Amino acid sequence: MDTFRKYVHADQSDQKQQPDWGINVLDVGHSIHPINTVYPDSKHPEGYFFEWDKGRVLAEYQLVYIASGTGVFEAEKLGRVDIQPGTLFFLYPRIWHRFKPDADTGWTEYWVGFEGSYANHLMKQECFNPERPLIQMGFNAEFINIFIQLIDTIRFGGPGSNQLAACLTIQLLGLVYASALLKAQSNSRKTQLINNIKYSIHENLNTNISPEELAAKHNVSYAWFRKAFKEITGKSPGQYQLNLKIQKAGKMLKETDLSIAEVAFQNGFESEYYFSRIFKSKMLLSPSKYRNNS
């Protein structure tokens, strides 16, 4: 697809003659930005061009989709975030932002700028948040095809083009909304499953059940389980399990008269020596000194 961009002035007569559908498309485009070149290029009109050091503030919403290449994005209340292919981000009115491709990759971008009463309503939905403006869309053929239709509609104009552009923009926002909801549901299911496995770990602290066995018990692969568990808890399953055992052992050392060997055995450790070595590495004291330390 050829690169294309068009910026529409709000006072153009053809817009005045057509009904207000609550979304007014102000600019739309597709750009392939080459490697090792200045971004944004000089073809950006006044009001849209920005210097990296200063960033930019717009008076409109923009939806920007990075189809290929990598880069960075930064906005008010959001630190610098790496951009990967398939990332979509929203720009919000009156919120400072800046973004650019990596010099050694460049990137391909699609964007549409819009405003209007219905646009304001849509952008107040839960999944559209100026503090979380990035959504990982990945490759979505329907999304790309609608973007191409939108660009062609603005490129070739004709009767009813503004209404059609508004409809296509609503379709794009609908796909983004659906993608965000599915991701939220997926994350919710993931969190619930990991919480169930965490419960199993607590219930089996006195055994030697392995993380692989826990994954099989819950009908998921160990590779997925380990990645998801660390993503949610910040620790690998094995370390999480070991930390719980050490905490339980420490409590038993303080609150019971069981020997160190018995404490080790009841917490699933193979030997007193192994337990003592692991306990000291975690608690910085040997089991006997920990017990005697007030």
Shape by Cα distribution: elongated
Structural class based on helices, strands and sheet pairing: alpha+beta
Characterize the biggest β-sheet. Answer: 6 strands, antiparallel
The whole-angstrom Rg is 28 Å
Distance between the termini: 73 Å
List low-pLDDT spans.
10-16
Q: What is the CATH class name of the largest domain?
A: Mainly Beta
Please trace the helix and strand order, writing H or E for each element.
EHEEEEEEEHEHHHHHHHH
Question: Tags for this entry?
Answer:
294 residues; alpha+beta; Jelly Rolls; Arc Repressor Mutant, subunit A; 2 domains; 6-stranded antiparallel sheet; 3-stranded antiparallel sheet; 10 helices; 9 strands; 45% helix; Homeodomain-like_sf; DNA-binding; Tscrpt_reg_AraC-type_HTH
